[in-house]
Queue: 2 jobs
Job 1
Amino acid sequence: MKNFKITQKKISLVIALTFAIFLFITFVHTTEVLTKGKELTGAEVYSANCGKCHSERYPSERTDDEWKVIVNHMRVIAGLTAKEAKLVLQYLQENNPEE
Amino acid sequence: MKKVSVFLVIFLTWVFVVYTPAFGQKSKFIVSGYMDWTYSWQKGKAGTFDLFHFNPIFLFQIEDKLLARAEVEYEHGGGEIVLEYAQLDWFLHDYVTISGGKFLVPFGVFNNKLHPSWISKVPGRPLANDQVVPVGWSEAGVMASGGISISGYSKINYALYLVNGLEGAEGDNIRDLRKEGDDRDIINNNKAVGGRLGIVPIKEIEIGASAYSGKYDDVASPKLSLNLYGVDAEFCYKEFLELRGEFNQADQEITDLSAPDSVGFLVKRGYYAQAALKLSPLAVSLLNPVEVVVRFSGQNFPGKAADKREVSPGVNYYVTNTGIIRLFYRLNLEDEAYKVKNNQIILQYAMGF
């Protein structure tokens, strides 16, 4: 493994990023506890996120089961929080006229 | 090799479709994707139709916490076929999703969030995402990503990855450092790391910072580093106004110090700024489906021959929410001494499905 180069720069980058994430998580937990953050509705999460990159996709476009797959797909691409993904899925399914 | 991988995807798709019940009720399979065709016209050249993309996407929800997905890209009517990505996303924790396979590198936003033609509002990629950060850029490796809510609409999202990385000859164009076809790195053990941190302070704004670091010379003991840095920002106001921009810089190490402007590194910079306004608020029914867009992008390289800018004004007509006819004029501006007549008129129909 002579040529496995993990340079100091790479290590510091990883450490810095991990540290930043750790700080944020701590910060988030503290603010969540302190502010008891306003709970968003599914409609709010949908309108704030689902028309941002591409134009809005309507609940009627897919079946309820398909939305589950797509929302997971969007969760990774758009960096949605787990809660947002859950709320948006509920919104899409509840407003799906065909189901 | 390419053809083999395409057949493999088709075969796997078939296996999944036929044997889906074997995974139980929860397993779900969907095909989505996008396609576009263009007619482009340039003075002194033949105008041509081009079925630029036909990219089917296969999504399999294996179980609640596991998503498998792949995209096959057929370019120019099938002349170029690549596996754009094939990855497994494992929702390990509310804050952490682990992805493995070959994935679009989350550097800035254009590469993994905006490049599909029905999404990117202007035909063709901006100069920030051509020779500085290549697009489409996918790598084999592992990634951790996630979103963490702060309060109300404010949140952060992150992606951290370890990949084989860009590799090629000293001083090569960065686009040419991508692995075409075979995603392996069997020359050395050198891996690259990178990440992006995005912050959403209020629902209209997202600001992100990205970094990537690796060695890029494809020899047994690589020495030349390639570091990429980028910032991106977006402002979306109520469905109809969108402003966004990215700035990317590559520091590409070289040993040939006689290269122009060289201080041991080729410093390549690229940027773009884009404004899009939907005319629906005017409530004139004829203009409802119309969006006016302008993009300005540029690249600044060592040696003026490669410096250029591009201005693309145009209109998008939304036939449906994902089917768009675009008409754009692309003004290509090279440095004075290297001017060429290469402005283009582009008519495109793009469709997401």
Note: Chain B touches chain A through 59 residues (CB under 8 Å).
Job 2
Amino acid sequence: MKLTLKVWRQKNNADKGGFVSYPLDGISTDMSFLEMLDVLNEELTEKGEDPVHFDHDCREGICGMCSLYINGKPHGPQQTTTCQLHMRSFKDGDTITIEPWRAAAFPVVKDLVVDRASFDRIIQAGGYVSVNTGGVPDANEIPIPKTIADEAFDAATCIGCGACVAACKNASAMLFTSAKISQLAMLPQGQVERKERAEKMIAQMDAEGFGACTNTGACSAECPKGISLTNIARMNREYFSAVLSSENV
Amino acid sequence: MSWVTKTLSSTLGRKLIMALTGLFLILFLTGHVSGNLLLFKGDGGQAFNIYAKFMTTNPAVKILSYLTYISVIGHVIYAILLGRKNKSARPIGYAESGASTNSTMASRNMGILGTIILIFLVVHLQSFWYQMHWGDLPFVTYDGEEYKDLFSIVTFAFQNELMVAGYVIAMIFLGFHLSHGFASAFQTLGLNHKKYTPAIATLGKLYAVIVPILFALMPLYIYFTS
Ligand code: SF4
Ligand code: FES
């Protein structure tokens, strides 16, 4: 298929940046979106031009490294990661607009690459549990109801890609933060730091400059892992009960 | 900063205030629409005028009305604070937006809807609330007791097509605002549960249709009957 790519190019964070159009031919519908960009980059390299920079790692939908705001949607038209998006989702002759995630807390590094270290700092603020040293504990030593384990696991499938922030009209990180708080708050192992975790992770989320939640649901609709809005409600409960009852005056 | 001010200036704290004031205003609307149904009574406004006097003189109602003023002001101030934070969270926007595929129009435009409702509110308060409290109203006497004839002011106001049209349009905006705000407030408060959330969502949608329609029928009824 024949395509026109409208790609955001930006030399570095200080550069203003802008769109550049590239015609592209001979793209197979079986290619993944990133393979299509590989073809473009090969052509650019052969011509001696700077290839388009974009993030990726596993290319199998599990690491959360790929991003890209494609035709007005994070990870493009399907509810999946960009690396798992295939060119059969597009038509011959299409113009595809590719932009980086847009958020003050995700500064552009170069072209389509953004710095998502703000997510790491939210995790560092409280997204951990204390464990005993010593011998390896038996598996299933602590009984956990199946429904709870499943729900915690669902929250834990968040890969930290940032599509929720990209999709949100307020660039809010509440879906991500709520998934990370939920996966621990629901399990016995997460109880020790429970209150402190909610308070600290939310304080960090605010400090990073993410917006507030309007409950539009765009995040969940675009999340490649389908993280549910119930996590945000749970996070709010965790936070309100933590600030009311923690020792942290 | 104490923990209270720190919490109330966090994004979640601010959203808590939005949700609580919003829910209080929903309670207010429920009371307001129920009382004003007396306009449909067709008794020349007697029941309505008696009700209006009660609402402006009863001490318990006074407390509720002060809470309502505070809620309106709080809802507006915190909307501005949150709106500014949200704007600064995305200084550079997208060239293309697919927002219509992932969220409702009302949920994305609560600020605009709210602003229109606020403008309506100012006009509405000036037309009736201000008149009732400080305006030069004619008096009527029922059973030897004097009442301000607010009903005559209302019926006079709704002889004007523009006024009627303005009210009906404002109620459409109110409906959209409520269609998202009602359930959203519960979600913000963390009140989300498999058993109740679907019911809250349905109730919210019904509320957002029924209450604005009842309100909109009032000017229409008066316009077409008097
Ligand atoms: S919640 Fe979904 S969209 Fe957000 S970071 Fe996690 S996986 Fe990505
Ligand atoms: S590259 Fe790992 S999820 Fe897309």
Note: Chain B touches chain A at residues 2-3, 7, 10-16, 82, 85-86, 88-99, 101-104, 107-108, 110, 180, 183-184, 187-192, 197 (CB under 8 Å).
